[in-house]
Design a protein that fits this description.
- The protein is α+β, with helices and mostly antiparallel strands.
- The chain folds into two domains: 131 residues, Pleckstrin-homology domain (PH domain)/Phosphotyrosine-binding domain (PTB) (PH-domain like, Roll); 50 residues, no CATH class.
- 39% of the residues lie in helices and 26% in strands.
- The chain has a seven-stranded antiparallel β-sheet with strand order 4-3-2-1-7-6-5, with helices on both faces.
- Strand 2 and strand 3 form a beta hairpin.
- Helix 2 runs antiparallel to helix 3.
- The longest helix has 26 residues.
């Protein structure tokens, strides 16, 4: 069992129905957010070394600065993503595409034996906070991943109306296992 499945089962059990089992889970963020966090961490580390080295020591200062910089980047991206609609989806402006339902920001995805679930993800504890969207398996999109073994890759949801929602993933998200399980489940449903 992946740690993401365990987090869904522990933290979001109230969102699961009776006899519903979590098959796979992963997480993603809005496109462009991971590089912003990395750059924020790098800038923060530089600032920490320059301004805090004397009083705190260089390694601690760099770590503190990187943490603060990455957190600032995460907060900025979360706020910007919450203003957008559609999670990087394609379609005409104002259109009600299926992809426009996909939440933006930090999202945890879960596949159960009945549904595909989309949860808001806590930026600090990496746990699911609130169920944002649920799709029956027959309505679930085809999911593809590009660069699952790179530091930063992408995960794409293609819906039956040909609308597309794109997110960013990191290698640690183990997205390929989620993609494989999602596509197997939707192919048999």
């Amino acid at each position: 069992m992946s740690r993401w499945v365990a987090k869904i089962e522990q933290q979001a059990a109230s969102s699961l129905r009776r006899s519903e089992k979590v098959v796979a889970a992963t997480f993603a963020q809005a496109s462009g957010s991971l590089w912003t966090q990395a750059i924020g961490g790098g800038v923060g580390a530089g600032v920490g070394i320059v301004f805090l080295t004397g009083p705190l020591g260089s390694l601690f200062a760099a770590g503190l600065g990187a943490g603060l910089g990455a957190t600032a980047g995460l907060i900025l991206i979360t706020k910007l993503a919450s203003r957008r609609s559609g999670g990087g989806s394609t379609g005409t402006a104002g259109s009600a595409t299926l992809a426009s339902q996909v939440p933006t920001g930090r999202v945890m995805f879960a596949l159960t034996n009945r549904r595909m679930l989309f949860f808001a993800m806590s930026p600090y504890t990496n746990t699911p906070k609130q169920l944002l969207l649920e799709l029956k398996l027959k309505d679930a999109p085809k999911v593809t991943v590009n660069g699952a073994n790179r530091f930063i890759g992408s995960m794409t949801f293609t819906f039956s109306d040909n609308s597309v929602a794109k997110t960013e993933i990191v290698k640690a998200s183990k997205a390929q296992a989620f993609v494989d399980a999602a596509n197997a489940a939707t192919a048999t449903d």
